[in-house]
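Next comes a single protein record:
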Amino acid sequence: MTSVPAPEPAAQSAPPASAAVPPYLRLRAVLLHAAAPALPTLCALAGTLLLFVLFLLLQGRPAGEACLLIYQGAFGTMFAWQNTLQRAAPLLLTALCVALPARVGLIVIGGEGALALGGLAAAMMPQLAPALPPVAMLALMAVAAMIAGGLWIALCGGLRQWRAVNETISSLLMSYLAVALFKHLVEGPLRDPASLNKPSTLPLPDADMLQSMPWLDVHWGLAWGAVACVAAWVFLRHSVAGFAMGIVGGNVRTARLVGLPVNRLILLACGMGGAAAGLAGMFEVAAVHGSANSALLAGYGFSGILVAFAARQNPLAIIVCAVVIGGVEASGSLLQRRLDLPDATTLVLQGLLFCNLLAWEAVTGRLAALKLRWQQQAHPTALAKEGSHA
């Protein structure tokens, strides 16, 4: 009688690799992965502080006291916080004017012009439709401001797509054109006859002014700006159109090959960015100035460029960076009073930060290229096989 061999015990499946890794190591890996995009910005901040300290020491000024005063002027008291948040409110929206077109690979720096035209369009609505109730009037002002700013920046995207005009140059030049048009209208056809020394449009009725938030002496533009940043992040990360914009920004030829409407996506990104900057102009008119005048041209559009680059075009990071840059701008008067430094000292600090951001962007780009080259030299056969299969 032949004996039947006993069945071999089933091989136990190996535990997944994730189970063998301790939880704290997984948490550290997640945190490092999340913090990696912020490393160039943090390095740029460190380099900026070092250069700013040297700048002050060369003038014989107490660098340590100046840095402490910047912190106190930005975040030291409740009044400082309110001043910081008041300045950060428009920066949230003007930074989106840079970050959203950057998703499709465009560097648009014309937020100042979109803000000016948005504020002007918002200031004209009470004269065109005076019978509307306050809530409807504020909504109409917001829509008019977004349309004005969106069309202005979308024109830059159209020039890029159909006339091959560099969007950085065209947006900057169109910003100057928008500011000139703003001044012409405010000081000419739309000027309030009662505004003698400071030309402005007719003042908004008190009922149409935007009130402050109940728990802060800051207008509601701050809250709406934060909501816009969150909505932009959700749109870019979790929508089909946002994913398509990322493909266009990564490689336009690939986007065309897979059939994406590249022109439409670029116009959409530019229009959304311009609409955000125009909305910032509406909030400045309806909550701060009460009319369209030269005080609206405070440089928030240009500061938004710095905020967007510091946030590495991430809408959620824009919220943090806008508060930091707003605090730096708010501390200028304290430096002037305590250390007799010019108010423009904070502009020097912002300029140093922008230069450091560009430098670290270049360094990280070079390091990524070197890493890829080393990988190619270390595994030439594997890369050759992948190329042959492709």
